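Suppose a colleague, Dr. K., hands you the sequence of a protein chain of 234 amino acids and asks what its three-dimensional shape might be. Before reaching for any lab equipment, you can write down a predicted structure in token form. Begin with the sequence itself:
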Amino acid sequence: MGDNDTRIELTGLRGVPESALSQALVATLPRNQAPAPWECRCSALLWLGRGGRAAASVLPPALAGSPALVTLGAFVRYTDTPVGAYDEVLGIVGSRTGLRPWGNVAFMSVDSESSLVGGRTNWAMPKTLARFDGELADGNLITGSSTAEPSWTVSATPRIKGPALPLKVKGSARQQFSDGRIGDSLLTFNGRIRPALVTVGVSSSGPLPTWLRPGLHLGAFVEDATFTLGEPRF
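The predicted structure, expressed as tokens, is then:
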């Protein structure tokens, strides 16, 4: 499987401390079996937070100095992907270059080793492993927790406030790869969403709560969606 020195595509990414991989875990991870692009089907719970200095501080060095305009947190339950079904929790910093918006995935954790490897290798998304409890449903608590140090937990409970609305949107994920290059990957989303108020809990022995903030947030419940995440362009 290789060791920590030969898996630079996994270990050479810049992320928040909560995204760190141990040498023991890296030594057991499989090779990437699912190159980009990925076509996926999912349901999800999203919430918005304010940006600012703390959020800007978690951007990778090649994006330092970019404004942190907003943060986006989410739980995602994937039912169909190139690596099978899995759950995910994430934190994104939203920024722009000129008039062009983009998002940087600063924190992402999944319960699939194949997804971890694919996310880091294909798109430089600093995925780590988590365990999940609960369901994505109105009034239900869902929780994601670390499986190793540093210890962290993210939880969310939605209160759905309106009818389902169709949404088609495109966005750009901008990530710094292990060789220092910046890659932009196009995400194309097509789904049905419902507005929601989301009560979020975030605790960590690291800095995660300073920028992915707990509290009551405006958000959306994604009933069902398909999306494609393309190959990065450098």
